[in-house]
Amino acid sequence: MTYTQLAITGVLLAVLNDMYLLRTKLVTRRIFWVSYSIIIFFQLLSNGVLTGLRIVRYNGEVIIGSSTPVDGHPPMFGDGRVFFAPVEDLLFGFALVLLSLTMWVWLGRRGVQRTPTAGPPRFTSHSTDEK
Amino acid sequence: MKQFAYLGVLAVCLLGTGLLEIFLRARVYRRWLRLILTLIPVVLIFTLWDVYAISRHHWTFDANFVTGIIAVANVPLEEVCFFIAIPICSILTLEAVRSMRIWPVGDEIVADVGDEQ
Fold this sequence. Notes:
Chain A is mainly alpha-helical. Chain A has helices spanning 3-21, 30-52, 87-109; strands at residues 56-58, 77-78, 81-82, 85-86. In chain A, helix 1 (3-21) packs parallel to helix 3 (87-109) and helix 2 crosses helix 3 (87-109).
């Protein structure tokens, strides 16, 4: 299988696991998408370093774009790349994050260290009146 | 020092999100057993994916930027560290958002009541 095929499969399996196997249904919750939008920003940054500096190099035969060039960095955007990384990495990352959060929430649901719960923030100068 | 580049990126990620544990009281490291149990299947599944991908030459690593230590099969130590660090960062982010907002996650004592938002 190509990376493209595997990445799409990974996302589908992660969503099926979240929705129907462990039934945490994170993809239906606002907190998941807010968290994920923060995560994806930092993922693009850190993965941009790993792929832009060619610490990790990709084979053009298994991704939508071309191989990581031998000389110089891959395109920042275009040719199947988003911030130097193959778009497949975004799917891979989504599957990794969703599986991790699903396991974490499922274990909490089963009573494994449900507590101590998060918060409140150490400095609540402005957030207390919002709730 | 160049050979620690990959590990360095992961260290920055962990140091950055570590602030969430302290200042937003995410309490992820504090729930270390739940964290370890979360990581076991994630590391297993994604390391298997990595074994396959590396054996099929989906991706390779610049020998200048990795330590050269192999964790298992042909998977560099850095990759296994990645599958540990990124889930930790993700969970810390989720719990940090929960610390700031009261949106339900699904593991609350009174779960599934009016949480379709």
